[in-house]
């Protein structure tokens, strides 16, 4: 996904041309100033008009005023930018949609984005386009994130992704420059097959209307970064008029060690909520649907006998609604694992900007949460796990738990029906 400046034109005060990259860099610096100003506050609310490219303007000429309005804005040096560039500049400055806040676009049909409404908060990371200089740390990240050597992309494949994807590779990093995660995407023609094995057919199809998540790696020490990158890629896809769907070929994490002989039945039981596969749950908890099992999609995946699971996102549907619960209650017949509860808890803590949401040995007080933030944490956990009012977690439990792992265990007991209010020092 390119920044979208191909059809943009800007002029300096002197009348000399101004490149799209210069406008973009200025916008990043502008947002970096805002990010510092709103740190520790409720955040920043933005409502901005976006520029449209020529094909979109032509296609919707009678239903919007972009043709003459954008010209007037450019002549008065009010530089409208494409929505994808706007979102990328925000991400580079560490500004992201606040937890539970939907992405608002006008028109709501999702055919294109003329006006973008966002409630933003500063996060302890930024996302930027990957560069060739990232190759060595990306190889190290892949070794940490992908334990099976046969499922890793080679150095040549990663270099090809960085050089040939035209904006399809993104990295998340801390503000001190430590690499936290990476996501690789490619445009594919949905009716002509998908990319399964690393490097197989990863050529960019610029006119394709389907975006595939080819790879997603997160440092195990920062597990919430994976969902952060996935949601960011969905946001960019939603803002790109040509993209209609987002797909991926995922895999089962626990089938090879289960007692279920049929992999189709294993996937179907996850779909029905009778079991929770860790990797499939990562996608389905964020709004993806499981389409089907693809035999022999990834021969190097020995644990799954080469099979892959095709998943599909509707980026507009996912982003137009508030974030949905990432686990189900027992009333819905779902067995929620302790690992899943811990992942959700870490995600919510990261959304709240906790200093070290991955430090399981730290208490919430040590993570820097005050009493108001504890109330916010309780509300978000209740929403994520769809808890009724009578089932809400006591604030005393949150404040007295000795670590995030201990709190996750207590929440897991609550969801499993073995709840008892623990004493101080859990």
Automatic annotation (TrEMBL):
Gene Ontology MF terms: phosphopantetheine binding
Identification of the protein by name: Carrier domain-containing protein
Carrier domain segment(s): 335-415
InterPro entries the record matches: ACP-like_sf, AprA-like_MT2, PKS_PP-bd, PP-bd_ACP, Ppantetheine_attach_site
Domain of life assignment: Eukaryota
Claim: Lyase is one of the keywords in the record: no
Source organism of the structure: Polarella glacialis (Dinoflagellate)
UniProt keyword terms in alphabetical order: Phosphopantetheine, Phosphoprotein
Entry-linked Pfam families: Methyltransf_36 (PF23525), PP-binding (PF00550)
PROSITE patterns to which the protein is assigned, alphabetical: CARRIER (PS50075), PHOSPHOPANTETHEINE (PS00012)
């Amino acid at each position: 996904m390119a920044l979208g400046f191909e059809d943009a034109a800007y002029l300096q005060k002197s009348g000399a041309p101004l490149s799209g990259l210069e406008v973009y860099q200025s916008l990043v610096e502008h947002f970096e100033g805002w990010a510092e100003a709103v740190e520790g506050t409720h955040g920043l609310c933005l409502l901005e008009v976006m520029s449209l490219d020529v094909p979109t303007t032509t296609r919707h000429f009678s239903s919007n005023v972009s043709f003459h309005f954008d010209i007037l804005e450019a002549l008065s040096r009010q530089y409208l930018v494409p929505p994808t560039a706007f979102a990328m500049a925000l991400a580079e400055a560490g500004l992201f949609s606040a937890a539970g806040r939907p992405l608002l676009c006008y028109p709501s049909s999702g055919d294109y984005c003329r006006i973008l409404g966002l409630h933003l908060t500063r996060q302890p990371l930024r996302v930027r386009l990957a560069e060739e200089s990232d190759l060595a740390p990306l190889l190290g990240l892949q070794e940490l994130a992908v334990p099976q050597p046969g499922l890793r992309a080679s150095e040549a494949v990663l270099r090809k992704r960085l050089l040939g994807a035209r904006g399809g590779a993104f990295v998340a990093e801390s503000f001190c420059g430590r690499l936290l995660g990476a996501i690789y995407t490619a445009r594919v023609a949905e009716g002509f097959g998908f990319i399964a094995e690393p490097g197989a057919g990863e050529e960019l199809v610029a006119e394709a209307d389907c975006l595939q998540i080819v790879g997603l790696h997160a440092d195990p020490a920062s597990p919430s970064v994976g969902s952060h990158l996935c949601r960011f890629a969905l946001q960019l896809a939603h803002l790109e008029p040509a993209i209609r769907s987002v797909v991926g070929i995922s895999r089962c994490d626990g089938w090879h060690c289960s007692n279920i002989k049929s992999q189709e039945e294993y996937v179907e039981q996850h779909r029905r909520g009778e079991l929770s596969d860790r990797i499939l749950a990562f996608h389905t908890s964020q709004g993806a649907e499981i389409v089907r099992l693809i035999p022999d999609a990834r021969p190097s995946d020995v644990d799954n006998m080469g099979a892959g699971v095709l998943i599909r996102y509707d980026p507009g549907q996912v982003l137009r609604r508030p974030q949905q619960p990432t686990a189900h209650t027992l009333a819905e017949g779902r067995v929620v694992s302790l690992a899943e509860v811990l992942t959700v808890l870490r995600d919510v803590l990261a959304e709240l900007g906790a200093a070290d949401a991955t430090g399981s040995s730290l208490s919430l007080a040590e993570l820097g949460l005050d009493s108001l933030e504890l109330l916010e944490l309780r509300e978000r956990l209740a929403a994520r796990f769809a808890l009724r009012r009578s089932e809400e977690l006591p604030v005393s439990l949150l404040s007295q738990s000795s670590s995030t792992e201990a709190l996750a265990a207590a929440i897991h007991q609550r969801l499993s029906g073995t709840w008892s209010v623990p004493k101080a020092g859990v």
